[in-house]
Amino acid sequence: MFHTSYIEVSKSALQANLQFLKELAGPDVRFCSVVKGNAYGHGIEHFIPLAEECGVDYFGVHSADEALRTHMVKRNSSHVMIMGMIEDEELDWAVENDISFYVFEFERLEAAVKAAKEQKKKARIHLELETGMNRIGFHWEDREKLVSYIKEHGEHLRVQGVSTHFAGAESIANYLRIQNQIANYNRYQWYLRKKGVRAEIRHTACSAPLVSYPQTKMDMVRIGIAQYGYWPSKETYMQYLTRDDVRHMTENPLRQIISWKTSIMSLKNVRAGDFIGYGTAYQATDDILIATVPVGYCHGFNRNLSNLGKVLVHGRRVPVVGMVNMNMLIVEVSHCPGVKRRDEVVLVGSQRDNRITVSSFSDMTNDVNYETLVRLPREIPRFIID
Ligand SMILES: *Cc1c(COP(=O)(O)O)cnc(C)c1O
């Protein structure tokens, strides 16, 4: 394998998540699978074909490099949409390959028309509207200029979508701001429509609004974190659980699709009073047995989990002792009788009856699941399992 750890991606878990999310979205709503950040750490090259096998045919990425990687592995019939950065020089490539992209300022709109003329083909664009996040998007004040520009260059533009993004729908603290954004989007979208700029797909919702603000589903939902098996926040999960139609829910409908595994590198007895690893971060209070694990912060195991993280050995949760090093960490295995070199270590996932979730990881470090996942390096081998 030539690597110290590996990642398993579960097809059945993905299938279950997609089925659940598509039901939540409803029959007439398209599903866009968001695969930015190397498919949230799962690996674009592995995830795209798997998602296609599970019926996904529309992918959202952040940038041209991710679009290229997706384009290389996807089926012809699947669509790629760039929701963020693409340089003007790359627009020709996008237009040529029917890749759609967000347009959020006049400079890019002009560049899109230029690329379309050069390619003798319509540029497929998604107009992004500024509705209150204050990140990217056309302002309400731009509306007349926007409409006249699009009408004037209509032969070169195909308005595939009209979109916006919400500023934190996973937190109830943002409730009013989201409500205002929804109203602003609707007003803008209606204006465009009235003036004859009609989008094929209106899309605004990512994972959290799909659950908490169902009116945002419109024609398509753009789903990232939930398809990988995570609720965007505890509040979102709670809002789901308290819906009228889920009163008898017993088990979490979302399943984490990733597991991360390695094995014991070396074992050692340490006497009471001795320090373990760098510095004085951990002092053994008893005679203990420790195991070295060949994964460290360069592999995405957060250094903040020093003296704090847990991994599974022989089905038991065992503690990280001392500092997480760049390529190694040390765990205490005194209570794992018969433990030996090469025994499996689960960093994320299940072993026997026990389970370590990405969320438990993230809880300990105050990271959000998104961060813990995208920190998994591209080099770690990924395997698809059932
Ligand atoms: C990341 C992203 C999404 C997906 O968000 P999740 O919370 O992971 O579902 C959707 N739309 C845009 C524009 C994004 O950047």
Automatic annotation (TrEMBL):
It comes from Natronogracilivirga saccharolytica. GO terms for biological process: D-alanine biosynthetic process. Its cofactor is pyridoxal 5'-phosphate. This is Alanine racemase. The gene is alr. Residues 257-385 form the Alanine racemase C-terminal domain. The keyword Cell membrane does not apply. One of its GO terms (molecular function) is pyridoxal phosphate binding. GO terms for cellular component: cytosol. Substrate binds at residues 135, 326. Belongs to the alanine racemase family. HAMAP family: Ala_racemase.
